[in-house]
Automatic annotation (TrEMBL):
Entry's EC annotation: 3.5.1.2
Gene3D superfamilies assigned to the protein according to its UniProt record, in alphabetical order: DD-peptidase/beta-lactamase superfamily
Catalysed reaction equations from the record: L-glutamine + H2O = L-glutamate + NH4(+)
Record keywords, A-Z: Acetylation, Hydrolase
InterPro entries named in the record: Beta-lactam/transpept-like, Glutaminase
GO biological process annotation, one example: L-glutamine catabolic process
PANTHER family referenced in this protein's UniProt entry, alphabetically: GLUTAMINASE
Organism per entry: Lunatimonas lonarensis
Descriptive protein name: Glutaminase
Gene responsible for this protein: glsA
Classification of source organism: Bacteria, Pseudomonadati, Bacteroidota, Cytophagia, Cytophagales
Length: 304
């Protein structure tokens, strides 16, 4: 398969159509990024990298890190975890608090903020230094030497964390949060502030395309069974209240972040990361979604 040729075609087509959105600014530091940036990196199961555009430039991965944190705890206490977080699409914005009341403190899924906070709480219980463990995990699954946390983005989000803090206290009120709220918020915001380029991000998702086995870590990161479930969650919940649309248009499991990144996998074939900072009103990258739609159209295959 001539992946390089295909992603170059996709890149040019998206550039010429030039769909526009708006760079996230509720985390003020994110608004300083160059809105014109656009890159694609595809990594096949042998580790061959295909890239185009700004694919080697680091960006803020934000909510894409929720897939890494979920992968870290899903295999450790799989059964217990699913009693604390559901596996249903929310049909609501990523930072919504309303549903938590009706669902008695059990978040709809691990990718909305409430669910991801429960996962980071579980990490905090499990590890003495959860952030260090997240960095170690990313290092292992991407083969990258060190992962940088953008301090400016982190401080900027910490200054505007009222909503996530409210979600965490609400979870605590329902006894679904074990650790001190401020401590978990710090870790959560820090892992959202990690920076990666498209290549490293695609590599870090490669084990999900490969039945849970990472060619970078040379070991099984999650079992094949857990890998399938994480992919199912990405397909049904990875784009918040636009998950149905992504499944319809692209047909691959994927996860977005408000930094403009999308990471996605085609099981048994490749993982891919696309980055373009302008977002639609659901908080998902406009160009990244168009690029992935064109990709599966050109490849003539998706999950379906
Ligand atoms: N850190 C961001 C937040 O909690 C992540 C949101 C996102 O990428 N959708 O608001």
């Amino acid at each position: 398969m001539d992946y390089q040729h295909i992603i170059e075609d996709v890149y040019q087509e998206v550039k010429s159509k030039n769909p526009r959105g708006k760079v996230a600014d509720y985390i003020p530091e994110l608004a300083n990024v160059d809105a014109e940036k656009f890159g694609i990196a595809l990594v096949d199961l042998d580790g061959t990298v295909y890239g185009v555009g700004d694919y080697e430039q680091p960006f803020s991965i934000q909510s894409i890190s929720k897939v890494h944190t979920l992968s870290m705890v899903a295999h450790v206490f799989q059964r217990k975890l699913w009693s604390r977080v559901n596996v249903e699409p929310s049909g609501n914005p990523f930072n919504s608090i309303a549903q938590l009341e009706f669902e008695k403190g059990i978040p709809r899924n691990p990718f909305i903020n409430a669910g991801a906070l429960v996962i980071t709480d579980a990490l905090t219980t499990k590890f003495d230094d959860p952030l260090e463990e997240v960095s170690r995990f990313i290092h292992e699954v991407s083969g990258k030497e060190c992962v940088t946390i953008n301090q400016d983005v982190m401080r900027s989000e910490l200054r505007h964390s009222e909503r996530n803090t409210a979600l965490a206290y609400f979870l605590k009120a329902f006894q679904n949060f074990d650790n001190p709220v401020e401590e978990v918020i710090q870790t959560y915001v820090a892992h959202c502030s990690m920076e990666m380029c498209c290549v490293d991000l695609a590599r870090s998702f490669s084990f999900l395309a490969n039945d849970g086995y990472s060619i970078y870590a040379n070991r099984e990161i999650v079992t094949e069974n857990v890998a399938r479930r994480i992919n199912a969650l990405m397909l049904t919940c990875g784009f918040y209240d636009e998950s149905g649309e992504f499944a319809f248009r692209v047909g691959l499991p994927g996860k977005s972040g408000v930094g403009g990144g999308v990471a996605s996998v085609m099981p048994h074939k490749f993982s891919i990361a696309v980055w373009s900072p302008e977002l639609n009103e659901k908080g998902n990258s406009v160009k990244a979604i168009m690029a992935l739609e064109l990709l599966t159209d050109k490849l003539k295959f998706s999950l379906f």
